[in-house]
């Protein structure tokens, strides 16, 4: 019988690979759902329902959390709401999902930079090599739009900045809270904040067709509930840096799914820009990339 300690890393890798596929599918589900729902109403409903489903698995842990930690988790959820607002508006205005997914992945690169600015952490040398490469890639994507950055690109880039801040904040809060109840707190907070924001600023449709509800259900059950549940479980089987290497594949899967579903193609400039951004991600995690492929 195989040693469970030996099997755990492979199990974590396979689960994280599935997580990236579910996350990539979420881009398609969300884009389709936006045809029948306003952006904030959709994303608020998606995360509130996902949070309530996950709460069924985290009930005992939630009841043991102090009010102080509950407020801390909800506070991170407010930041999460800001990042998701920019993301869903960027997706709503996006003309190319694959390109947007690579721009969104810039948030991973900015995590150590944000840690340096906010907490004085010292980023690895690879970060300073990777950043110029990523910026050149982003510049090529803007050249593809005719020497300008489109509104969707600005919004997705802004969400990447907020996601890098969110990851840093989460890393501090999670030391006091188990991952699953923290996830529930954040998802429910996002749902309530963005639901109220939608009520204030968006016209709600008088009726929602079955197809749109189907895409919403897929977003809730597959791209949110199942994805976050598996991600929390898989990250418990490996290190955060190792997990981050595999999670970088989300942009690749998104581009492939967008090509299959929408028939998206990339110009030479788009391919070069996305390629440089992905290369920057690999450079930034080079130690863990080598460890991943040299592990026995």
Topology:
Layout: H1 4-33, H2 39-63, H3 67-93, H4 97-104, H5 106-119, H6 125-144, H7 151-173, H8 179-201, H9 210-235, H10 240-247, H11 250-262, H12 268-284, H13 286-294
Helix pairs in contact: 1-9, 1-11, 2-3, 2-8, 2-9, 3-7, 3-8, 4-7, 4-11, 5-6, 5-7, 6-12
Task: Walk me through this protein's architecture.
This protein has 296 residues and is mainly α. The protein contains 13 helices and no strands. The relative contact order is 0.22.
Can you give the mean pLDDT?
87
Oligomerization status of the protein chains: single chain
Q: How large, in whole angstroms, is the Cα Rg? A: 19 Å
Termini gap: 18 Å
**Class from secondary-structure proportions:** mainly alpha
Helix content: over 70%
Note poorly predicted spans: 1-7
What's the number of helices?
A: 13
Q: Largest sheet, if any?
A: none
Which overall shape is indicated by the principal axes computed on the Cα atoms? globular
Task: Give me the strand/helix succession.
Answer: HHHHHHHHHHHHH
β content, as a range? under 5%
Give the tally of β-strands.
Answer: 0
